[in-house]
């Protein structure tokens, strides 16, 4: 045991030192708590100290959170290098590495502290986007498109377009699904979201017969690989024994004419091979050695080929019972029963062939939808990056993105997908061992838990053994655990060997690697096991409350977390926490749509979108900002089932007061209080409806909500939820996807933002807890299972091909009423086995979040005779059962409910939860005479050093009158900027492409919010500008390929005269004379008679801004700098030299 002393190096320190060698490539397994991020940062700093420019070192992560954490720690290390060296070994190593980087920074004038964006620490999506931006033509995306976080509405639009086509293949697929169009739509939408897994395998043009031969050969290799793995798993000392027993039993059964598969083993003199024809004898071996459930046989009879008797018969039976089958061999032998014959039946192939055609058509329809909307999803960006890299890079090609990269580091490598592996392979295609370029992959296969995102842990295992492309990787396994106290680490080392399979497997099984505790073991017990009879979760929830209260009482400053496999598993626990008044922070736990303020905002938005949405309008009138009673609503709409609520409201508010208050009125009008409330709300909504189309819906809804008094109806901690709603509304509008039903569906996917300033407990799913740690971890609901996913339209499995790439095995869903197809069943079986292995890894992630204490809670199923039943195999409890069954059973016996402990303090709380003794709930609404408060005085920061550059807008000279453009003009300018960027990045643009692109430009203008009446005039201005630009010699000089260091739409941030300055430069390059040019495009138009004066006025207006841009560059380089204004609508040009900083 190693004491908790930061000055003592961990036992694996030599491996950590080895990982810092900048001349070698490594793949590192870093188990939980082993300091993976720290090692990654050390490696990154070590490589920075060796390169000529910081952009040559690229670190890739999979989440923005991980990217931000790594960047923050690297910058902190560079900052600390300015001070004294720390004393602890790890911090001292980081300081020394950062010191070398700082020296190189100064020597080569990198100026990283002023320009931290030069550190290329980015997500995998950002890396793909940068490749697309640098190679727009090769990517086939024409530059960096707008990327949607959620593209499902576009998937649905693509499917709807597909369904409008008359295609024989489409009819065949629909017929196979009994023409269940909604189900087909849902399944195909899911397939489009995952097309990065299958589309690249289906793009090759070939006829049906060729496709059939290719698919059959893939199935054959799948079967043969399974048989080869089975043969390899047999212990050497058992091979001859199994052959002898199989030959004996087979001969006995063959002599009796038995139809048992064992009879096929007669005359066997060696183990079956790994060819397709060997499946039958292997099935005979499985029948011989295993029960139908896959367990080793505990008895042998004449049915298995072992007749009763003495002598040889008794001896052979004894030898069979003595066989000790390893788990790996037993599992693979049982799986051979599922192996399909690799031949597609005629009907099955007809459906599969049609489905392949339909999928290709759906992908093409989706690309057309993307083009119309001017937006794509992350999958399309990834495919664009792969397309850009899909050619052999020459050694002198400056265009290849991998050329400038000397070192590539990949974090969380165990969660890579096939498409991402292909990206890394192509990015490093011309790298060679020993050429000074290195690859550093770090991760932990025991923590690969993102299979639902197409992560495949088998890719990590393959890279461990074979490397990546041409790069051999030296494997390193870390062992020190810096997170958990010794007792927890030793307990995990004892439990998890039985949880994991014990063998690395391309199908997703990984071997457990034990850790060495760095912290001392505590003397008090740290593992709590709590079992209960199945009672709906009530007793478990109360036990969770008791555990939290005990932890807070004994260790008030320590962190406590409840981790659940799924949000639904917290249904009984969260009400108990609220009832016990335990403040908790739920991370993506509470659905945003359940919040009353969001329900009211959703109703307001739907009402403004569609005056005919009666439910939305009634909800608006019932909301607290209006507060009409149910009687008022009934009086307003009674007998008017077809009328528009807005029209009824207008009629009511415009009618004479005497008529509305008359008791003889046939419509039963509003009472005076209700009328006053309705009039105030109608004024606001009428104004909002008149402005609809003149301003973005997000602004219209927010202004209406504020004018109605929405902010006065909520608490301060609800504001973050409203901001999330308005942000979503803005995103949907920018994506041109405004629809009430879609908005409702998208809101249902969001979660309330935790607003507590203080909390005692964190509650989250295990996936969200990845990378975190807590002093006490509580894992409830170990017996619970995840929901069963609907079977896919197409079952597929990627597997290694002979070429080194991957092949795709496919099978279509079985038609309703038909027998289940064995190929489809087998592929689903393999995917289920992968999911089962991932469950083990998810359990490992959950348990290793604990630093000091761990509590495992589970309900047990007990039969009528008090026998504890075996848990469902898909549950966490089943994975722990072989190691902890006795502990859980003992806990069940000792854990009779202590009502004095659990119930006495919570009896009142349960009344709160259940609603008993609850009086009438008062309706919240604003007073009838409510008026908006006065706006506060303008906020200013006159003495703040950042006020000028960040908060205050740049002012033009007082004598200059600036004609600000309207909405359509601004949108035209935005689109022209995008097109000029594409023109600058694409050297193969032809004039005829202008009209071909007009449909996409029309969609882009629509997406920018240009109203329909102004679309065509705006489009004509765009086309006119681009045609003029293509004929302009000045423009062709601006994009001259002889220029060096070109950048377009270049974001730059730095410090100028002690203040933060930032900007996005339209075009910059260094000309053949070594002059740095900074060019800004200006799409404003000169007025009548101002053609000569307009460029001069614009030069005066933007002189200060361009000088600030030049100052940003002067912090990075020393060269002559010129700036220019280019006017694409007129061909105008103004340029001048910038002498120095302002």
From TrEMBL:
Residues 9-485 form the UvrD-like helicase ATP-binding domain. It catalyses: ATP + H2O = ADP + phosphate + H(+); Couples ATP hydrolysis with the unwinding of duplex DNA by translocating in the 3'-5' direction. GO terms for molecular function: 3'-5' DNA helicase activity; ATP binding; DNA binding; exonuclease activity. It comes from the Bacteria. Its EC number is 5.6.2.4. This is DNA 3'-5' helicase. One of its GO terms (cellular component) is cytosol. The keyword Nuclease applies. GO terms for biological process: recombinational repair. Keywords: ATP-binding, DNA damage, DNA repair, DNA-binding, Exonuclease, Helicase, Hydrolase, Isomerase, Nuclease, Nucleotide-binding. ATP binds at residues 30-37. Residues 496-771 form the UvrD-like helicase C-terminal domain. InterPro entries: DNA_helicase_UvrD-like_C (IPR014017), DNA_helicase_UvrD/REP (IPR000212), P-loop_NTPase (IPR027417), PDDEXK-like_dom_sf (IPR011604), PDDEXK_AddAB-type (IPR038726), Restrct_endonuc-II-like (IPR011335), UvrD-like_ATP-bd (IPR014016). Gene3D superfamilies: 3.90.320.10, P-loop containing nucleotide triphosphate hydrolases, PCRA, domain 4. It comes from Candidatus Kentrum sp. LPFa. The keyword Electron transport does not apply.
């Amino acid at each position: 045991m190693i004491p908790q002393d930061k000055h003592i190096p961990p036992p694996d320190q030599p491996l950590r030192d080895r990982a810092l060698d900048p001349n070698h490539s490594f793949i590192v397994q870093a188990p939980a708590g082993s300091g993976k991020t720290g090692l990654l940062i050390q490696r990154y700093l070590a490589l920075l100290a060796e390169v000529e420019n910081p952009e040559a070192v690229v670190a890739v992560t999979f989440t923005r959170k991980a990217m931000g954490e790594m960047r923050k720690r690297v910058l902190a290390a560079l900052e600390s290098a300015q001070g004294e060296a720390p004393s602890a070994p790890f911090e001292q190593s980081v300081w020394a590495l950062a010191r070398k980087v700082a020296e190189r920074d100064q020597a080569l004038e990198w100026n990283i502290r002023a320009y931290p964006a030069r550190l290329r620490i980015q997500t995998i999506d950002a890396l793909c986007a940068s490749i697309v931006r640098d190679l727009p033509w090769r990517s086939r995306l024409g530059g960096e498109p707008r990327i949607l976080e959620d593209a499902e509405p576009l998937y649905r639009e693509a499917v709807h377009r597909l369904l409008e086509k008359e295609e024989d293949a489409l009819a065949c697929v629909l017929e196979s699904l009994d023409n269940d169009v909604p189900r087909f739509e849902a399944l195909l939408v899911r397939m489009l979201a995952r097309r990065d897994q299958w589309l690249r395998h289906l793009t090759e043009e070939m006829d049906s017969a060729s496709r059939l031969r290719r698919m059959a050969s893939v199935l054959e290799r799948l079967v043969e690989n399974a048989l080869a793995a089975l043969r390899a798993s047999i212990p050497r000392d058992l091979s001859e024994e199994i052959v002898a027993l199989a030959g004996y039993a087979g001969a006995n059964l063959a002599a009796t004419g038995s139809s048992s598969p064992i009879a096929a083993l007669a005359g066997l003199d060696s183990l079956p091979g790994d060819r397709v024809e060997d499946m039958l004898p292997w099935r005979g071996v499985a029948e011989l050695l295993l029960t139908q459930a896959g367990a080793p046989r505990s008895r042998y009879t004449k049915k298995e080929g072992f007749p009763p008797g003495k002598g040889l018969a008794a001896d052979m039976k004894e030898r069979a019972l003595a066989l000790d089958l390893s788990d790996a061999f037993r599992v693979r032998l049982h799986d051979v029963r599922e192996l399909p014959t690799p031949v597609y039946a005629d009907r099955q192939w007809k459906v599969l062939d049609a489905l392949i055609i339909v999928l290709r058509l759906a992908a093409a329809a989706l690309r057309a939808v993307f083009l119309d909307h001017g937006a794509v999803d992350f999958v399309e960006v990834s495919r664009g990056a792969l397309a850009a890299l899909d050619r052999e890079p020459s050694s002198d090609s400056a265009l290849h993105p991998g050329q400038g990269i000397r070192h590539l580091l990949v974090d969380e490598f165990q969660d890579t997908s096939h498409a991402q592996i292909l990206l890394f392979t192509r990015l490093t295609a011309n790298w060679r061992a020993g050429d000074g370029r290195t690859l550093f992959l770090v991760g932990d296969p025991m923590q690969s838990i993102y299979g639902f995102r197409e992560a495949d842990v088998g890719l990590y295992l393959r890279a461990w053994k074979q490397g990546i492309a041409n790069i051999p990787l030296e494997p390193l396994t870390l062992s020190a655990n810096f997170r958990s106290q010794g007792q927890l680490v030793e307990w995990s080392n004892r439990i998890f060997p039985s949880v994991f399979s014990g063998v690395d497997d391309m199908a997703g099984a990984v071997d457990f690697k034990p850790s060495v505790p760095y912290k001392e073991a505590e003397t008090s017990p740290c593992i709590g096991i709590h079992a209960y009879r199945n009672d709906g979760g009530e007793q478990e929830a109360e036990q969770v409350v008791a555990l939290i209260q005990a932890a807070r009482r004994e260790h008030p400053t320590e962190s406590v977390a409840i981790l659940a496999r799924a949000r639904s598993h917290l249904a009984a626990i969260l009400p108990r926490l609220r009832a016990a008044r335990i403040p908790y922070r739920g991370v993506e736990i509470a659905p945003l749509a359940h919040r009353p303020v969001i329900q009211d905002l959703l109703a307001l938005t739907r009402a403004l979108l569609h005056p005919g949405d009666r439910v939305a309008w009634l909800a608006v009138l019932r909301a607290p900002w209006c507060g009409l009673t149910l009687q008022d609503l009934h009086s307003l709409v009674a007998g008017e089932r077809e009328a528009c609520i807005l029209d009824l409201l207008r009629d009511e508010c415009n009618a004479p007061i005497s008529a509305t208050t008359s008791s003889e009125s046939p419509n039963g009008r509003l009472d005076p209080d209700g009328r006053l409330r309705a009039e105030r709300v109608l004024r606001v909504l009428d104004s909002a409806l008149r402005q609809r189309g003149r301003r973005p819906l997000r602004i219209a809804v927010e202004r209406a909500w504020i004018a109605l008094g929405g902010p006065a109806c909520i608490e301060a901690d609800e504001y973050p939820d409203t901001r999330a709603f308005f942000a979503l509304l803005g995103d949907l509008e920018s994506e041109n996807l405004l629809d009430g039903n879609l908005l409702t569906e998208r809101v249902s996917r969001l979660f309330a933002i935790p607003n507590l300033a203080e909390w005692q407990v964190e509650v989250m799913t295990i996936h969200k807890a990845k990378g975190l740690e807590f002093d006490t971890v509580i894992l409830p609901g170990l017996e619970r299972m995840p929901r069963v996913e609907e079977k896919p339209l197409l079952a597929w499995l990627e597997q290694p091909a002979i070429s080194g790439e991957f092949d795709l095995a496919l099978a279509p869903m079985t038609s309703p009423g038909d027998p289940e197809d064995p190929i489809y069943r087998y592929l689903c079986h393999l995917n289920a086995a992968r999911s089962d292995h991932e469950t083990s890894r998810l359990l490992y992630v959950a348990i290793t979040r604990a630093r000091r204490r761990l509590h495992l809670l589970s309900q047990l199923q007990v039969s009528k005779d008090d026998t504890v039943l075996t848990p469902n195999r898909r549950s966490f409890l089943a994975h722990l059962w072989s190691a902890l069954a006795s502990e859980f059973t003992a806990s069940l016996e000792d854990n009779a409910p202590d009502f004095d402990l659990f119930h006495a303090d919570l009896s009142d709380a349960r009344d709160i939860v259940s609603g008993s003794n609850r009086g009438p709930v008062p309706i919240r609404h604003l007073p009838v005479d409510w008026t908006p408060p006065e706006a506060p005085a303008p906020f200013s920061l006159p003495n703040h050093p950042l006020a000028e550059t960040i908060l205050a807008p740049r002012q033009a000279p007082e004598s200059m009158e600036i004609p600000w453009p309207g909405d359509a003009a601004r949108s035209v300018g935005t689109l022209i900027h995008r097109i000029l960027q594409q023109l600058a990045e694409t050297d193969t643009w032809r004039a005829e492409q202008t009209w071909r692109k007009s449909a996409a430009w029309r969609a882009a203008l629509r997406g920018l919010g240009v109203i329909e009446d102004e679309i065509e005039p705006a489009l004509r201005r765009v086309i006119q500008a681009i045609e003029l630009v293509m004929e302009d010699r000045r423009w062709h000089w601006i994009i001259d390929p002889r220029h060096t260091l070109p950048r377009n739409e270049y974001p730059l941030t730095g410090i100028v005269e002690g203040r933060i300055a930032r900007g996005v430069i339209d075009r910059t390059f260094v000309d053949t004379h070594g002059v740095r040019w900074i060019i800004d495009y200006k799409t404003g138009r000169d007025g009548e008679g101002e053609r000569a004066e307009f460029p001069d006025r614009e030069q005066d207006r933007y002189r200060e801004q361009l000088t600030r841009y030049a100052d940003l560059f002067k912090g990075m380089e020393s060269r002559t700098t010129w700036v220019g204004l280019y006017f694409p609508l007129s061909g105008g040009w103004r340029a001048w030299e910038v002498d120095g900083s302002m």
